[in-house]
Amino acid sequence: MSRAPVKRERGRTDYFYSDYNMVEKVKRFDKPILVTRPYLPPLDEFKTGLEEIWANQWLTNNGPVLQRFHCELAKYLCVSATNLALFNNGTLALEVGFQALGLAGGDVITTPFTFVATSHALKRIGANPIFADIDPDTMCLSPKAAERLITNRTKAIVPVHVYGNVCDVEGFARLGEKYGVKIIYDAAHAFGVKVKGRDQKSLVSIGTCGDMSMFSLHPTKLFHSCEGGLLVFKDATLQKKLFDLRNFAIHSETECIDVGTNAKMNELQALMGLLCLKKIDALLTWREKIHETYKAAFVDCPAVKYFNMSQNHAYCPVLFKDFETRERVYTELRERYNVFARRYFYPLLTDFAPYIYSKVSCPVARDIADRILTLPTYFGLETETAQTIAENIKEIISERM
Ligand code: T4K
Predict the structure, then answer these.
(1) What pLDDT is stored for residue 173 in this prediction?
(2) Does residue 38 line the site of ligand 1, with CB under 6 A?
(3) Ligand 1, closest atom to CA 94?
(4) 291 lines ligand 1 (CB under 6 A)
């Protein structure tokens, strides 16, 4: 549909006449609306924390603020402080965790529908990622598909709680026991998510599932420490090894016991984490409000499938009927409305150069990657903005159908 000249007022609702002489509304935002924005604590609180760090003259290497953050996280997640380790980002947390669990040289079954960091971390420690298909309902790795690929070379399975959706944790626990393979969750998106505990009544952190879980504390996540990563693990005796590996594997002044790395979280990161943790309930509630807005807005629009099963509302994925529609919505949201939704996770990892070798086809993952779009969701995004974005999407779809 071609358009008549558009009379625009900056930052206001613009009106113009379409080919059909109907008045249309173009709600273009003044400033770009990004898929996410980090929560920033009050600057004064950060400055006060900086004064303490200045007084300590201690910036990294297991400083006092880091230790406090470590304890606060253990409390929040209801796990023992001995079952937790902090890192300077999620990717290095994964690498160090994989190394500590001895995955080097083995095959590891994982999902192609994730961020590249999941498989990069495996490759970088010398493990061989093998990709299996996902479950269409959760978009997480399917235990059935994973089981079909288990061989005597398989050392572990790495499912991802994608968007904060809970994987079939019982299915994976069964595979772990049956085949003696480690289950390590990439829980980068799942901070704050809880599952039923062993008694089937109480709720426990999702980090207690499997042998190990990694939470990313990157600013694009609902809770962050500027950059950061957190491992929660079942076997508390691993903690010393993880602490060593994140510090060059220096065990004592005269001993270096392995090929470690520098993956330590510094004091400024820990300070940011502590301040954001104070606000976690408000961050979760805000996102819930945004999701309710999107969900209600798409109820009468079968062409957009609102898809959110996560408790923490980490992302807001929606599905379109086909690839062409998704691409059109993605492009027009940017060009016409100044809205920067993202195609998390497209392309599939198996289409990226380092992983193109994979012979296994993952039709469910491919179909979803082709149709998915994640909409802006973050603390501070107004519900009116989410409502307008939903209207923009409906307008784009109705114009061309
Ligand atoms: N496993 C999974 C499943 C993951 O999703 C990730 C990371 C990891 C492992 C690894 O964890 P980390 O090592 O990152 O802790 C972003 C993030 O960089 C990445 O952390 C995240 N997943 C991934 C899903 O998203 P990009 O390439 O999309 O980032 P970028 O720079 O385009 O930022 C996204 C949006 O956020 C932009 O619209 C800008 C906005 N933004 C970003 C930053 C950093 C801000 O407004 N402020 C900021 O400070 O990867």
Answers:
(1) 97
(2) yes
(3) 9
(4) no
Q: Which of 220, 224, 348 to mutate for ligand 1's pocket (most ligand atoms within 8 Å of CB)?
A: 220
HEC letters along the chain: CCECCCECCCCCCEEEEECCCCEEEECCCCCCEECCCCCCCCHHHHHHHHHHHHHHCCCCCCCHHHHHHHHHHHHHHCCCHHHEEEECCHHHHHHHHHHHCCCCCCEEEECCCCCCHHHHHHHHCCCEEEECCECCCCCCECHHHHHHCCCCCEEEEECECHHHCCCCHHHHHHHHHHHCCEEEEECCCCCCCEEECCCCCCEEEHHHCCCEEEEECCCCCCCCCCCCEEEEECCCCHHHHHHHHCECCEEECCEECCCCCECCCCHHHHHHHHHHHCCHHHHHHHHHHHHHHHHHHHCCCCCCEECCCCCCCCCEEEECCCHHHHHHHHHHHHHHHCEECECCCCCCHHHCHHHCCCCCCCHHHHHHHHHEEEECCCCCCCHHHHHHHHHHHHHHHHHHC
Q: Which residues in the chain show pLDDT less than 70?
A: 1-26, 400-401
pTM value is: 0.93
Token digits of residue 26: 């173009």
Q: What spacing in Å lies between the alpha carbon of 352 and ligand 1's midpoint?
A: 18
Q: Which of 17, 3, 38, 9 is nearest to 273 (CA)?
A: 38
